[in-house]
Amino acid sequence: MAYHIPSSKVEDVKGYLDIREVNGYSIQYTTFYPSSPARARIENCMLYIGLPSNPQFLGVQDQQDLAERIVGCRGPSGENVEYLFMLRDALAELSDGEEDRDEHVQDLARRVELLIAHREGDKGDKGSSEQAVENEMQRVKSAGTSHESEETDEKEKVKHSA
């Protein structure tokens, strides 16, 4: 998946992404080949990628360990849980069908939802796992609004996948 950024917005979007993707990602340029053979390839497509040479690169991780880390962490751009769910939803919306969905992201989101439901259950909440996830999303959103405008700007400026 690739996104065209209008030339009038490139500087703003790149500045934003340089901050958001700091400390773990490197800028690389590559040729992008769309999944549809009817679309032309794109030369010199910029992407942010975590490389093994980066000290922050963790390598291949167990999905369950990664889900547990996501539930317990927050980054400068907001809650990791919220980012994961927004990424899952955006990728689902942009995909042409089940075969185009990112299974890694889908599986990770399911695992996080189960962890949240389990945590809510441990607190005595007898609601469904869907309710537990909704409760967690409400908690994340009510924790502060400082990053809400940043996320709204992000949606408007660029959508990108990891």
Description:
With 162 residues, this protein is mostly helical. It is built from six helices and four strands, in the order H-E-E-H-E-E-H-H-H-H. The protein has helices at residues 10-20, 63-72, 80-94, 103-122, 129-142, 148-157; strands at residues 26-32, 42-49, 74-75, 78-79. A two-stranded antiparallel ribbon has the order 1-2. A two-stranded antiparallel sheet has the order 3-4. A hairpin with a 2-residue loop joins strand 3 (74-75) and strand 4 (78-79). Helix 3 (80-94) packs across helix 4 (103-122) and helix 4 (103-122) crosses helix 5. It is globular.
H/E series:
HEEHEEHHHH
Radius of gyration based on Cα positions: 17 Å
Helix and strand composition category: mainly alpha
Total DSSP E strands: 4
- What overall geometry do the principal axes of the alpha carbons give? globular
The rounded distance between the terminal residues' Cα atoms is 10 Å
Query: Mind summarizing the main beta sheet?
Result: 2 strands, antiparallel
The mean pLDDT is 78
Beta percentage is 5-15%
Give descriptors for this structure:
162 residues; mainly alpha; two-stranded antiparallel ribbon; 6 helices
List the helices and strands and how they pair.
Layout lengths: L9 H11 L5 E7 L9 E8 L13 H10 L1 E2 L2 E2 H15 L8 H20 L6 H14 L5 H10 L5
Antiparallel strand pairs: 1-2, 3-4
Helix pairs in contact: 2-4, 3-4, 4-5
